[in-house]
């Protein structure tokens, strides 16, 4: 599974992207062949791994092979 960020950590870094991004990586570029799930997280790039909601999603993926259902 892939869980890219889409946020505004530094809005000035979003200028090069014409689509959703976290200022470092465009969300469209995170879709990889063979992935089993994809979840876009509203967050900035730098602190993505430390967000409690992201940690929960990672554990859900490890346990079930998919992220929790979106609400």
Commentary on this structure:
With 71 residues, this protein is mainly alpha-helical. The chain has 1 helix and no strands. It has one helix at residues 52-64. It is globular. The mean pLDDT is 77.
> What is the overall pLDDT average?
77
Beta-strand percent range: under 5%
Number of strands: 0
Secondary-structure content class = mainly alpha
Report the order of strands and helices.
Answer: H
Attribute tags:
single chain, 71 residues, mainly alpha
Task: Briefly say what this structure is.
The chain is mostly helical and 71 residues long. The protein has one helix and no strands.
List the helices and strands and how they pair.
Layout: H1 52-64
């Amino acid at each position: 599974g892939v869980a890219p960020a889409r946020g505004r950590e530094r809005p000035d870094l979003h200028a090069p992207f014409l689509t959703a991004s976290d200022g470092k990586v465009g969300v469209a570029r995170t879709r990889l062949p063979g992935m089993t799930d994809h979840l876009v997280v509203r967050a900035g790039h730098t602190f993505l791994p430390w967000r409690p909601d992201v940690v929960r999603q990672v554990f859900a993926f490890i346990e079930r092979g998919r992220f929790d259902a979106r609400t």
